[in-house]
Amino acid sequence: MSSNSVASSKVSGNGVPSRRRSAGPALLGSELTVLFRRRRTWAMLVAIALIPILLAVAVRLSSETLAPGEGPPFLDRVTQNGLFVAFTAMIVAIPLFLPLTIGVVAGDTIAGEAGQGTLRYLLVAPAGRLRLLLVKYAGVAVFCLAATLTLAVAGTLIGAALFPVGPVTLLSGDVISVPESLLRSGLISLYVTVSLLGFAAIGLFISTLTDVPVGAMAATVVVSVVVQILDVLPQLSWLDPWLFSHYWLGFADLLRQPMDLGSFGDNVLLQLGYIAVFGTLAYGRFSTKDILS
Amino acid sequence: MTAATPAPDLAIESRGLTKRFGEQIAVNEIDLAVPRGAVFGFLGPNGSGKTTSIRMLLGLTQASSGQISVLGQSMPDSLHAVLPRVGALVEGPAFYPFLSGAANLRRLDTADRNAPSSTRGARVEQALARVGLTHAAGKKVAAYSLGMKQRLGIANALLQPRELLVLDEPTNGLDPQGTREVRSLVRSLAAEGTTVFVSSHLLAEVEQMCTHAAVMSGGNLVAQGTLADLRHVGQTRVRVRTPDAAAAAAVLTGLGLAPVHSDVPEQDPWVAAPLPREMSVDLTGQPESIVTALVAGGVRVRGFLIEESSLEERFVALTGEGFDVLQ
Ligand SMILES: Nc1ncnc2c1ncn2[C@@H]1O[C@H](COP(=O)(O)OP(=O)(O)OP(=O)(O)O)[C@@H](O)[C@H]1O
Ligand SMILES: [Mg+2]
């Protein structure tokens, strides 16, 4: 702790005047670094990648061939065309596993920093409460994309490794080439990512309510389960179009020729609505929150 | 405009600053005045409201009532202009355990959008060197000891040249060597012109490094001023060590003093008496005249001492002897 004043003045000498207000993306970069340097993040991505792998291996090892329509959608086609592994895996992962991982990441955003005590140091830096909230949300969005891309890439690779690959016969009966089907895989990843953004905003809001990250994660996951139960209750069918999970499995529309983008537009609007409502709630809560952790 | 009285240049000023947690008043209408350039000790026993006050000063929590101004600007309204000029350690260090010490500092540095990224690496290195952590820079914080984390917390406060440092119990968990180094670090920062506001419940620490101090007790600010001021409020006492305690007490009473004496067995008994400021005889000017009187009275004097009241006695007088946390 020697006061090395000669060296310190070298840095401090020109440090003060350059008050550039750039460095905006620096915090986002740092946020992503922190997110992707965590072993937990990688463990979740690996678990996500295991879904298509287990699925493909199971299909490969089982001798009996599925009748068309048996099992999850597309599963019967997997043996004929490996490219369907990714689509099947999406459908399997979306209801529970993706919300689980996103609940962990979104619930951890603010509550995790608070529980760890780093929130007070970010805020006295000062990060700015709105800026921090935006960066945290962007981090969750990037994780959503990473999760769906992991599913798509792992599914495609394992499908190609274990099954024949060829032109894909769409739900409409049309046939598309392999490169085009890869493009559609990418679009589907994007579609699923967008579908998850409203839910991510809810997780962010819940995360501002507590200093206990596990509580926020659990509550967020519970919300996704409850909403999906509401989605299947026939008595509440009027509510369905307003539930954030309504379009979660709607990506099959991208497997028609021509692509049906109508549901995609509705989905985007719905998700934006959730982001606006829960983003505002999160800001309202966080901007006035006493940081006591 | 009226010719304003030149306000003393204060780094931190609060008026009627109050924080309530439900029924409990954690900080009760405190008026802090921390002059620029001071090393200001913020003293108080556990639970007296030091950290709560600091959180309000830094805009982490909202005051229930009262005004704050830091570096001449009101808080929390001017938070974005003020905080880049303030380095802080609040209620112990906190870091990402899975990142290295250096990576943690880089992370917290990006949080300040005014921090130039071009000098980030150099500034991080510099701060680590200043707290003696250069060799542990690449180690994960999970593997740091308490004292190493505390040092890293101080390094974080030093990432940029600051006008004000707010350090909440900076020597907590440090080894004697580290404690000494923090003290000399604080002094060298003060010499560079940085105002340092340092909270502590260790009086000796404050006595050794501060120019000013304030004392908190049960949420109230019970004293504030320069260290000399605080000392002088207390009384000067005369203390006589003698086997003839009763006779000594009689002589002192004859001189117009109010002696008390103790006789702990196996220890030389002593007699002590406060010296009033104004006395008929000028005893304060010539305390040795007391010895003359004692000897004339046949008292065997083994020791004679004029005691300035220590800051410790003053501290105890202000905050109470009790061990129990007040609230
Ligand atoms: N989040 C909280 N909710 C309720 N009461 C609180 C909270 N934080 C602090 N307090 C109360 O406020 C009072 C002051 O606490 P504070 O942390 O400011 O004390 P301190 O002077 O920093 O003590 P220490 O020396 O132990 O750090 C205490 O009585 C404490 O119980
Ligand atoms: Mg404290």
From TrEMBL, chain A:
Residues 1-22 are annotated as: Disordered. Keywords: Membrane, Transmembrane, Transmembrane helix. Residues 1-16 have a biased composition (Low complexity). The chain crosses the membrane at residues 42-63, 83-106, 137-163, 183-205, 212-230, 268-286. Signal peptide: none annotated. Pfam families: ABC2_membrane_2. This is ABC transporter permease. It comes from Cryobacterium sandaracinum.
